[in-house]
Write a structure and sequence with these properties.
The structure holds three protein chains of three kinds. By secondary structure, chain A is an all-alpha fold. Chain A is built from six helices and no strands. In chain B, about 75% of the residues lie in helices and about 5% in strands. Chain B has 18 helices and two strands. Chain B has a two-stranded antiparallel sheet. In chain B, strand 1 and strand 2 form a beta hairpin. Chain B is globular and about 70 Å long. Chain C is mainly α. Chain C contains 20 helices and four strands. In chain C, the strands form two sheets. Chain C has a two-stranded antiparallel sheet with strand order 1-2. In chain C, strand 3 and strand 4 form a beta hairpin. In chain C, helix 13 runs antiparallel to helix 14 and helix 17 runs parallel beside helix 19. Classes of the chains: A mainly alpha, B mainly alpha, C mainly alpha. Chains in contact: A-C, B-C.
Chain lengths: ~130, ~500, ~500
Amino acid sequence: MSHEMNTVLGLYNYWIVIFLMMTGFYVVIAKGNLVKKIIGLNLFQISVFLLYLSMGKINGGTTPIYPDKSFFADLQDQSSTMPVYSHPLPSVLILTAIVVGIATTALALALIVRIHEAYGTIEEDEILLQDQEA
Amino acid sequence: MTHEQHIGWALLVPLVAALLTTLNGTRPNLREGCTLVCAGALFLIIASLAGHVFAGARPQLTLLEVVPGLAIAFRVEPLGMLFALVASGLWVVTTCYSIGYMRAHHEGHQTRFFACFAIAIFAVMGAAFSQNLFALFLFYEVLTFSTYPLVTHHGDDKARRGGRTYLGILLFTSVSFLLLAIGWTWVLAGTLDFQEGGILTGKATPTVLAVLLALYAFGTGKAALMPFHRWLPAAMVAPTPVSALLHAVAVVKVGVFTVMKISVYTFGTGLLQDTGISLWLMYVAGATILLASLVALTKDNLKARLAYSTISQLSYIVLGAMLANSWGVIGGSMHIAMHAFGKITLFFCAGAIYVAAHKTEISDMRGIGRRMPITLAAFFLGSLSVIGLPPFGGSWSKWFLALGAAEAHQVALVAVLMISSLLNIAYLMPIVIRGYFFPAGEEPSRSEVKEAPLLCVIPLCLTATCGLALFFFADTIYGWMLPIAPLVVTTP
Amino acid sequence: MQQHLPILLIITPLVAAPLCLLLRQRIAALALALAVCWSTFAMALWLLEIARNTPGGITYQLGGWAAPWGIEYHVDTLAGLMLVLISGIAAIALSFAPRSIQDEIPAGQHYLFATEYLLCLTGLLGICVTGDLFNLFVFLEISSLSAYALISLGRSRRALTAAFQYLVMGTIGATFILIAIGLMYMMTGTLNMADMAERLKRTIELREQTVVVHQTRTILVAFAFLSVGISIKMALFPLHLWLPNAYAYAPSVVTGFLAATATKVSVYMLLRFVFTVFGVQFSFQTLPFDVGLMALALIGIFAASTTAIFQTNIKRMLAYSSVAQVGYMALGISFASENGLTGGIVHMFNHALIKGGMFLAMGCLVFRLGSVELTDLRGVGRRMPLTMFAWVLGGLGLIGVPVTAGFISKWYLISAVLERGWWPIAVLMLLSSLLAVIYIWRVVEVAYFQEPPETDPPVQEAPLALLIPTGLLIGANIVFGLWTTLSVGAAGEAARQLLGASP
């Protein structure tokens, strides 16, 4: 395999991110149903979560959890090196971002419920039509 | 009182007048009494300051430095002093006239009228005394906005349209040209102060200076240089006292005063003469003089005719400023005063005729002189002063301007001045002739029209007499203006 | 206490917000919120004073963890000025609220209003103090989420759709910013702004080549995401579509508060990223960011002002005017010179006062008239003279008449343009302010020259509880037009710091 091919395939995680991101973005723009819009928005946000998570991951890395004493005992026995950890910070950041995402979704859904009460529909074009008539 | 305090009081008194007027809105007599007292007080303050300034003092007062380099500061020099003197003196007279006119005419919103009037005078005082371009621009704009309610006083559609034109043109020119020019000056010269000899010498190429001068000349929309003159006829929807003081004296004179100040203190007359960048603006002014006079001939509405006459006369002063030689500057400055007395008389008469006979069109004024002899006599005197015939003040300023044009070897402009005087005769005299010698119209007047109320007639007699008296005091004004003239010239 | 001020400023409204929720009682909740807002304002003033006297600004390490590992709060002059502005407007607007929301929001939701308002304040203040990029994102979302909720409180059902639209666009914008932060983190391994600025200039080994981190494609992509994301948030033309409806249908107080603060904070973010993190060198010399920003700003000013002229809903008209004014701020930033930046920052400050005041005046009109349609304002100048006078004074500020604050910012912008010799842009700027004359004067003519409709009883002047806060903001517009030691002084300092931070 050529060097370029390697680069392209080696970055598969980013391709997934971009694919998800664009799908979500498309759904937000193209769909008239407000709930579908929010699903698209979620997809869009989740792709960014993946971007962060995959950037912290190291091949063969373990979870960065402080091991107990027996682990160190084993370690000395086998005269091996410390295990490789994945970077924990992106995961921590994304934990916060997930919370923000949930809050956004919850608020959006609440708004959709209110919109449905007020307009009797959650289709964007019908809402626009009602606003123009009013 | 020190001179500095004089400046402060001169600004404060009109504001106090505005405040008192507003507070006493429900008591007309008290309200107008307050205005009158304040007007008188202002005149006394200005007159006592004038003595010092013409004797050579240059009092200064810095009120506030808004941002470094932009200060609301005042410095009284002869040109501004003369202007302030004329404006404050005529404010007293106009206040008397306004009381008579507004009451006889049962105008509404009189409190607003007197309050805005006082604020406008405040702005005029500020502009006259301003020490730098920023302060001048500030008061220029205050004047624009404070006179807007006066122009639209009647509140009907016509007033609204007039107000729109008024504000539209004045703001358009001042914001897009004048402010740009001021900003540019600031970047070029690093200061906005008015200084003897100007601040722009050696700071920019002649091309840049020429553009800058054009921006100033056209940006000062209040100077009504064509093609930015349309606001002045539009402003005639205002009650006549407004047209008289503001649109024949205060507002328009702030315009030409600005042009004069910029010519003398920002560019410096030397710079203008050396580079010759003002030549084409002289022709613009000359064209405005002639065209406006021609338009005036076609107007049947008396106030409209007077408005175009004003446009024409303003360009005399712009011409003087652009000539930038001693005769031009002195003639132009003197014309600020001379034209003021002549034109305000004419407007007072127009208002008096409107109040007494409800006539606005010249063709309806046949025989008016028989019924309103005093008014028409004053109109006659005022006309002669505007035309510039001896023994009236106007003759001196026109004479000096013609001398200035001759000294600059602009024979064409000398001719323009002469032709313009003929045109003045052509559009002003028929009114007098019609009033005295034509029989009244066929329809018998139902009630005999009498003179306007005394409060209207006395002021107009006063200003007409002043126009006459100024002929004999021209030498004094000449002496006052000498310090700002570029070269010392011998007394005529 | 003094060294803990940066965190106290954030903690106070943050803790008070759930307290309001627990109180569940309208008067208690509003009283608490008011007390918090005014004390925040006092703290912000104090903080600005300290920040201006401390070279390099104040830093505060959260929990004692040193940067770049811990989260650092950093208050320099710019941040201090923003804090004063935001908390000041918040306090004044909230003083306006108790009377104004009586009609506009059901009484049972008033404590919720107070909660959301305080949360929004927390978020906006947080963005300005934080020196940590991810923290900035979190605060941005706190302020945005509460802003969506606040907007949806509006009386008309269109407030709901406006809030929804804002939510979708705002979330996209915020996510873009998040992507950019992620990409930058990827290349530098830090989230601290100062640290990142430093690391962006380092060289790294990339595919057997030595490159400066700045010049990697990842950072370029991050910059693109960031500028689009922030542009959405600050409603820079053509990404302003969420703003007009959101401002038009939100409750009056909310419009006043958000119009004066939310977009300004986004402008602040732009300043922080472009100048502090990326640096002038990269943004303006490596990338033609200035040209792009200037073009968008100018087009935005004209397009939005022209649209404003054709609006019949006055709140919408002012909203479009806000889009245009954001253009002036962007224009000032795009010059990247001291005068230009000073102009941009001062305009941010002044416009907040002007627009805040005008929207509060609109609130007075809504209180008495119940409508903001142009045709319903007939003759209101005679019925509500003080309110309309305040509105007109604000309008003069928008036009940029001398003596008003608007003139000061225009003056700086104009001299910045002329300094560079770009006089066509100066002409365009001045012409654009004439568009403001047109849309302001349309309202003036209707309010003063048309006969008021006969109603029984005739419309009254707004109550003092509404007039005083309105007057305060409009009065500030005049005060800062004459006395500029605080506004221009601090803005000039901030501009020098921003330009000096990156040689």
